[in-house]
Amino acid sequence: MKEVLLLKCGEIVLKGLNRKTFEDRLLKNLKRRMAHVADCEITMRQSVVYVEIPDDADADAVMECASRVFGFATISRAAVCPEKTLESIIATAKDYLAPNFAAAKTFKVESKRGDKKFPMTSTEISQHVGGELADLFPDVRPDMHHPDLTVHVEMREKYAFVHAGPVPGAGGMPIGSNGRAALLLSGGIDSPVAGWMMAKRGLELCGIHFFSYPYTSERAKEKVLELGRKLTAWCGRMSVMVVPFTHIQEEIRDKCHEELFTLIMRRFMMRIAERVAVEYGCGALITGESLGQVASQTMPAMAVTGAVCDLPVFRPCIGMDKEEIVTIARKIDTFETSILPYEDCCTVFTPKHPNTKPKMPKILEAESHLDVEALVDEAVKGVEIIHLP
Ligand code: ATP
Ligand code: MG
């Protein structure tokens, strides 16, 4: 049986004059992502996108791919009726929805008539199709108020479709519609979630990872790249900039007071991230910080680390509990990778008693023992760019 996906656009339908640009981008994103999965014909009419699934394609994979494209509110997986007649609609519903009828005790039919030339109203269609299906499935009672199964009939321009109702799409806005931002990507649980949340708001991501070889291993780096790959299932291709960070950490260790180590290190991260971000056309930085989670994520600590950059810093996890972050990490399939036990550059020289209420003059005094500009330049020059598909 021929199947299609009917994807309904989300928030972008609200966008007035920009709507066309948004829709074009959404369609382009979907086509690019779908190209890895199957050779589907993809078209858009009246804010509905049609994905025609070829007979030899894996329909579940097509569905999964579509459900990870930001910008769609709902997805209906439907059967195409061979003809636009009531008989054809009933026959299609009988076959295609047989498993749904088998699992239901009650049902109703809901029809939409996009094709106004069809000589019956949507109510008449529902009544007729509902009556016939009630005869075909005598164990399933009609119930107009709380049915287990709602049979949807959509009478569109070219075809009639039958399905068992929409499921939620990925939501959000099309990737790229709000520009590009740089995600500070560690091997932890929080930063991939932060990246996903901002990608959902239409940001294209560019990853930045600080790498402290040999204190952290190649395997730790591979883990971060794997997290990046997992994110590409949602946000499409992405580049990760790997920044050599060892020299900076050694300099801080040798020349600054231990309790300030993490804060000074984080200020370097933000400076370097901003330089790289600007070079690659990013308009903001994204981190996985969550208020109070660790010593460097108190309000005064974030004031000190945020002070070195001019770009806006998005911290979408800031108000979330760890449990809430973990729930998203599981949903987006990064959790299992994040908990692999490889060391992170942040844990390498962690002070025993980190300062949670830093004062700026003390930080500046400590940094005066370092050649900040030269160290930042050196790190930026050493960036290795890795493109993830
Ligand atoms: P995560 O679970 O993402 O590692 P965390 O709770 O461990 O976060 P920190 O280690 O203090 O928190 O880091 C806070 C944020 O700083 C991270 O969410 C990430 O955005 C950034 N960050 C930390 N380490 C790195 C790194 N090695 N490379 C790039 N960004 C990093
Ligand atoms: Mg971390």
Question: Could you explain the architecture of this structure?
Answer:
This protein has 389 residues and is an alpha/beta fold. 41% of the residues lie in helices and 20% in strands. It has 15 helices and 15 strands. The strands form two sheets. Strands 1, 2, 3, 4, 5, 6, 7, 8 and 9 form a nine-stranded mixed beta sheet that branches. The protein starts with a strand and ends with a strand. The model has no long low-confidence stretch (mean pLDDT 94). Bound molecules: adenosine-5'-triphosphate and magnesium ion (MG). It is found in: Cytoplasm. Keywords: ATP-binding, Cytoplasm, Nucleotide-binding, RNA-binding, Thiamine biosynthesis, Transferase, tRNA-binding. GO terms for molecular function: ATP binding; CCA tRNA nucleotidyltransferase activity; tRNA binding; tRNA-uracil-4 sulfurtransferase activity.
List the helices and strands and how they pair.
Blueprint: E1 3-9, H1 19-34, E2 41-45, E3 48-53, H2 59-66, E4 72-80, H3 86-96, H4 98-103, E5 106-113, H5 122-136, E6 141-142, E7 149-155, E8 160-163, E9 167-168, E10 180-184, H6 190-200, E11 204-211, H7 218-235, E12 238-244, H8 246-255, H9 261-279, E13 285-286, H10 299-306, E14 313-314, H11 322-331, H12 335-338, H13 345-348, H14 360-367, H15 372-381, E15 384-388
Helix pairs in contact: 3-5, 6-7, 8-9, 9-10, 9-15
InterPro entries: Rossmann-like_a/b/a_fold, ThiI_AANH, ThiI_fer, ThiI_N, THUMP_dom, THUMP_ThiI, tRNA_STrfase, tRNA_sulfurtransferase_ThiI
Enzyme class: transferase
Binding site for ATP: 184-185, 209-210, 266, 288, 297
